[in-house]
C-alpha cells in the first residue's frame, strides 16, 4: 500500500511537470521586426578594429607557413623537386 501511494505521488508530480511546460494557456506572441536589436555605435570604427585584427592573424599565418616551407626546403627533409636531379643514375 505504501509503495502504491509513493508511485501515485511520483506519477502526479511527473505529470504536472510535463504539463507545466505548455505555458498555462497563454497565447504565443510571434516575433516581429520591432523585437530585433537596434545597431549602436559607428560601423566604420568597429569594422576598422576587426579588420586590423584579422589582418594581423592573416600576416601571422602567412609568415608561419612561409617559415615552415623555408625550413623544410633548406634542411632537405622534404624534396620539392624544383630543379631536375643532378645525376640521372
Automatic annotation (TrEMBL):
What keyword terms does UniProt attach to this protein?
Answer: Membrane, Transmembrane, Transmembrane helix
Q: Which residues form the Deltamethrin resistance protein prag01 domain?
A: 34-85
Bilayer-spanning residue ranges = 54-73
Database matches in Pfam families: Deltameth_res
| Recorded superkingdom | Eukaryota
| Transmembrane listed as a keyword | yes
Mind telling me which InterPro entries this protein's record contains?
A: Deltameth_res_prag01
Among PANTHER family, the record links this protein to:
AT01821P-RELATED (PTHR22133:SF2)
Identification of the protein by name: Deltamethrin resistance protein prag01 domain-containing protein
Natural source organism = Chironomus riparius
Amino acid at each position: 500500500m505504501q509503495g502504491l501511494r509513493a508511485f501515485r505521488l511520483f506519477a502526479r508530480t511527473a505529470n504536472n511537470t510535463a504539463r507545466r511546460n505548455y505555458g498555462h494557456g497563454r497565447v504565443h506572441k510571434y516575433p516581429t521586426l520591432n523585437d530585433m536589436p537596434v545597431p549602436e555605435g559607428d560601423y566604420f570604427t568597429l569594422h576598422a578594429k576587426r579588420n586590423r585584427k584579422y589582418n594581423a592573424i592573416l600576416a601571422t599565418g602567412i609568415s608561419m607557413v612561409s617559415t615552415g616551407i623555408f625550413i623544410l626546403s633548406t634542411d632537405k627533409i622534404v624534396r620539392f623537386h624544383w630543379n631536375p636531379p643532378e645525376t640521372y643514375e
